[in-house]
Amino acid sequence: MNPAPGIWAVLPVKAFEGAKQRLAPLLSPAQRRALAEIMLGEVLAALAAARGLAGILVVTCDPRAAEMAARAGARVTDEGAREGHTGAVTAALRLLAREGRGGMLAVPGDIPAVTAAEIEAVLAAHRPAPAFTIAPARDDLGSNAVLCSPPDAVPLRFGDNSFFPHLDAARAAGIEPTIVRQVPGIATDIDSPADLAAFLRLPQAARTRAFAFLAAEGLSG
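That's the 3-phospho-D-glycerate guanylyltransferase sequence above. Prediction below.
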């Protein structure tokens, strides 16, 4: 039987140990690990609740992250998990392409304010294949949600300044990209103290907010 051709979410997850080094001025190593775990739980919950996804594929070599993913009903692979964000997503999209899946939605594990409605908004904006849809980070530099149909339609390379290069890559592949804004949860990743301050201005992600208030005094100091 051929696999269903729908869109799969791809979620690369780094090892929790040593996570979020840029938050070291505010949080201890144990707190940073706990924050990474809580954020992953929020993202998994949003993806699991979103309508229109055919499945979730988590790329990780962290046993705890794999356990959380399986509990959320996601597939887990460690292929490419040690090759950074770009390597993990590339390995996943190649896997999905081999399986004949219709598309891939790549999101990071540090956007805890993402909601199912925001995921659905990205899916709704996506055009028939071949197509490329992107939701940038709040600074218009990072690529916080990237949707490709087919999964390998556009070569991807993530980093601190990947948004405009991804637009160029889509156009070079003959695809006019669709840009989705007005999705603040997707746009707000948490890497730095400034990101954490921006996150705390959002109303959603109750578990992460409760934990992040531990750092509020440091943010105002």
